[in-house]
Write a structure and sequence with these properties.
- There is one protein chain.
- The chain contains three helices and three strands; from the N terminus they run H-H-E-E-E-H.
- Helix 1 runs antiparallel to helix 2.
- The chain is α+β, with helices and mostly antiparallel strands.
- The chain has a three-stranded antiparallel beta sheet.
Length: 105
């Protein structure tokens, strides 16, 4: 069952990546905001996350380009999980963000 589950998830990931690649090369997505939304929705589904946020660096801050369920979010680089990643370049994968001391509440 575990191997089958991994195979199904891998197949789904491949299909999502293919669809995003097709959207990049066709007129299916007309602007950057729509493309970011499509990529983030697919990524969020793929990792089975409750929500996803896409940040851009603006000077010393991170600014959300797409935050599900939120308006624009601005946080200083180095603050919270996203700020930590922006500062260090470290990849992190956290099962429960609330349990991490870097989580910006």
């Amino acid at each position: 069952p575990q191997l089958y589950s991994k195979l199904v998830k891998s197949k789904r990931a491949g299909e999502m990546l293919l669809q995003v690649a097709l959207d990049l090369t066709t007129s299916a997505v007309d602007n950057t905001d729509d493309l970011i939304h499509k990529i983030m929705t697919s990524a969020c589904d793929l990792v089975e996350a409750d929500r996803c946020t896409f940040f851009l660096v603006d000077g010393d801050e991170l600014v959300s380009k797409m935050a599900q369920g939120e308006g624009e979010i601005r946080i200083p680089i180095g603050t919270g999980l996203a700020g930590h990643v922006a500062r260090t370049g470290e990849k992190i994968n956290i099962q429960n963000a609330w349990d991490d001391h870097r989580f910006n509440r």
